[in-house]
Amino acid sequence: MSTASGEKAVALSARSLVYSYGAAPAVKGVSLEVARGEILSITGASGSGKSTLLLCLAGVLAPDAGEVRLGDRIISAESESERSRLRRSQVGVVFQFGQLVPELTALENVALPLLLGGARRSAAETAARTWLERFEVGGLADARPPGMSGGQSQRVAIARAMVTEPEVVLADEPTGALDSLSGELVMNQLVRVVREAGTTVVLVTHDARVSAYGDREIHLRDGELDPHPADLLDAGVS
């Protein structure tokens, strides 16, 4: 979807976002916009505030000041329960270690957001199988996380984030726990699928190879946008 001028509509934005852990500021007045269908990379050294920024964008954390908008909706002003509901429907979140439920199968993990949203089990499992296949892990439908490799479990976690067909996916170091080959496979599949679906993605990473998958990159330094990013990205294996 584009505006009348031909520019893409804004899917997600932040205005003057501030968040502190006690007396320690982590995000200091950050403003950004992400266009619909865009992949935005947020980079920075460890401790720069990028993961805290992503948690504010996801509605996991309520900012101390400023606002987060999903389209025209100010989600930072909504209740914790409403923000949680949004994460089960319109905003998918992927963490570094996947955070799959170890007692559940891959199919059950991916179906879970739909079941929590009130979908029938048969419909939820059908959708879950489809998304597992899209990430080429359909054969793991009956496997549980302890029996999967890191790359396999991360692809299952991304399928879970995508199963509700969210407007935005927020990924925090999605390859950070993987070797370079597994990380490349995960990123290639993630980018392919979100391009097909037209999903907006915000990708937090310290790795230059991962940030290169984005359409655009912004850099954080000490909780602020850095207009002149130095060579702070880790070029080593994630």
UniProtKB/TrEMBL annotation:
Q: Does the keyword Transport apply?
A: yes
GO molecular function, a single term: ATP binding
Q: Which positions carry the signal peptide feature in this UniProt record? A: none
The protein's UniProt keywords, in alphabetical order, are: ATP-binding, Nucleotide-binding, Transport
Residues in ABC transporter domain copies: 12-237
Q: Which domain of life is it from?
A: Bacteria
Q: What is this protein called?
A: ABC transporter ATP-binding protein
